[in-house]
Write a structure and sequence with these properties.
The chain is of the alpha+beta class. The protein has two domains: 3-86, DNA Primase, Chain A (Alpha-Beta Complex), CATH 3.90.580; 107-205, no CATH class. Helix content is 25%, strand content 20%. It contains six helices and ten strands, in the order H-H-E-E-E-E-H-H-H-H-E-E-E-E-E-E. It has helices at 3-8, 12-18, 64-72, 76-83, 107-120, 122-129; strands at 28-29, 41-44, 49-52, 61-62, 141-143, 154-161, 166-173, 183-186, 191-194, 204-205. A four-stranded antiparallel β-sheet has the order 1-2-3-4. Strand 8 and strand 9 form a beta hairpin.
Length: 208
Amino acid sequence: MNIQELKSKLDIVEIGRELGLQIGKNGSCLCPFHKDKKPSLFFSKEKQLATCFSGNCDAGSMDVIALVQKFYSWELPKVLEWLQPYAGMAQTPKTKTAAPIKSVINYQQLFKKLQPKLGQSSKARDYLTGRHLDYKTLEAAFNNGKDHPSLKYCVIFPLKIKAHRSYHCMAEAFTAMPKTNITILKTDRDYIRVIPEKTPKKSSLSKV
């Protein structure tokens, strides 16, 4: 898939929301690239562009790739890799077909989707800082519960097992989990068990 094909399968508004931008119904939001008190960044679904109209900002008009690249200050290859799991968001209702329910979760795609959420959660950042970990360089993610029903309010770490060509996740909860017994997620080979902590002060560790 080349760059133009990738862009055609992406919706810049949805990607903007994945970046944590609070985009209103009129397509506007506070610009993350400068101190913004009033929404000056506008998204156009028709043109698939995001444009900042503030005189204090050098962002100008950006397509979806330029938006992600400027937001994370990444090189182009990393931007393209990050966007791959989101390809397909730009499908129209006329052409979109219901996807079959999969019994096996693609944890690699899920992890990439949850990665941006880590920097958006002040509690997750404080939790990692308290353990002398830098969230900016750490390969980790955060689930606020909106993208996956389990592992809610957990910092997610990837476990890559090359021998079995499988991809699993380990999660550490920093807040009290719901009063349930054990939440179990099934992968293609094993189970991931998340044991709820008894008190908010103690952390719980899920193991593969």
